[in-house]
Amino acid sequence: MAPNPSGDDPPADVFDYDDYVGDDYGPAEVFQGDRPGAEEYATGEHPVERYPVAGPLAQNYPAQTPYDEELTGAWPAPAEEDTDPVGFEPVEAPEYPPPADPYDDSDDDLHLLTTHQGFELPGWGAPEGAEAAQGARVRRYRRPLVVAGVVLFLAGMAAAILVAPRWVGTSADRTEAVGQTGVSGDAVSGPVNGRESAKFELVDGAAAVRLHTDDLGDDLYRVTTPAGSGVTPKVDEADGTVQLRLPPGEHGGPSEVTIVLNNAVRWTLQLNGGTAQTTVDLTGAEVDGVDLLGGASRIDLTLPVPTTVVPVRMAGGVDQFLVKLAGATPVRVQVQSGAGEVTLAGATHKGIAPGQSFTANGWGSGEAGFDVQAVAGMSALTITDG
Fold it and tell me: Which terms are listed as keywords in the entry (predicted)?
């Protein structure tokens, strides 16, 4: 087919149906776009002056075959013929109990569950009379009671496990004890077994640590935590050392612990864990040494009357370090990392450089006393005579 030249030239000069249609379409099936008059043009009845087939306004391509039938504009569509020769009668739905009373099953309701229009459903049988209906209700009420009983039983078992003593077996060289839980908190203790000296080591830190000595009779130590504490005391004994650990407890409360040591035993103390406040009162006991290795915000240390030169070492760093002596006890202070101030024998020294030392109460005369070694830095050290 020859291309369309510009302008509205006579169609006989630019359009040939035989070349355009070929063997696939007849002249009656050729449409010039989707415009009025296209079909008339294809059949030879074309108004050339109104519907050009050449030039910029022409569209020389075959369109799709038009619809065989025109769509009707009638709405709504005519109703379909009812071909049901028998028809049906609507079945009214049964009345059910109100939602607020799901267990109010009457005999008629149970019958509707098992039959429909007089036919038995497979695998079901209608209950016989009111007794069967009452039995169904009894079984339904009994199920929650059984579940509640199981829950109460499990709760009782859990409570029994929690309050039962949690002592681990002993051996010749090692004993482990875990705090026993009660309404007042956790408590754990161990026998003295005739020992005259022992070492106590606190492995973990806590918000508040309180340690003192007392007459415990046959007990070597007693460790307690308050109700709702965030830690559970656990003690290991081996080679004359009582080692206390404070793993997290079940309540998530504040981590506080109170430690009581038998004052009839000679003690060596080592506190490794950091604390916010540590209070140690060794009045009435015999002490071979005190190591404060964990950092603290405040340490209050009350020392007994010494029988020899006793080292007291602070190596964890502290803000306020307060030491109380039993009377005018000889004492020496060695500041190894510097300090803001040191108060000793009523005199306050400020801006202490590392390596400085101070003495009081006749230190160096060969008498028993305390050698305080401030290995780590501190803001203030105050030593008073009791």
Answer: Membrane, Transmembrane, Transmembrane helix
DSSP letters, 78-131, are: PPPP---SS---PPPPPP---TT-TT---HHHHHHHHEETTEEPTT-----HHH
What is the biggest distance separating any 2 CA atoms in the chain, rounded to whole angstroms? 142
Confidence at residue 156, expressed as pLDDT on a 0 to 100 scale: 56
Q: Hey, CA dihedral for 177, 178, 183, 185, is it positive or negative?
A: positive
Residue recorded with tokens 């864990």: 273
Cα of 196 vs its chain's centroid, Å: 47
Domain locations in the chain as residue ranges:
1-66, 93-146, 175-385
What does residue 26 show for φ and ψ, rounded to 5 degrees? -95, 165
Q: Which two tokens stand for residue 122?
A: 């497979």
| 112 band by pLDDT with thresholds 50, 70 and 90 | very low
84 within 8 A of 34, measured Cβ to Cβ: no
**376 closest CA partner among 341, 336, 343:** 336
Phi and psi, residue 238, nearest 5° = -160, 130
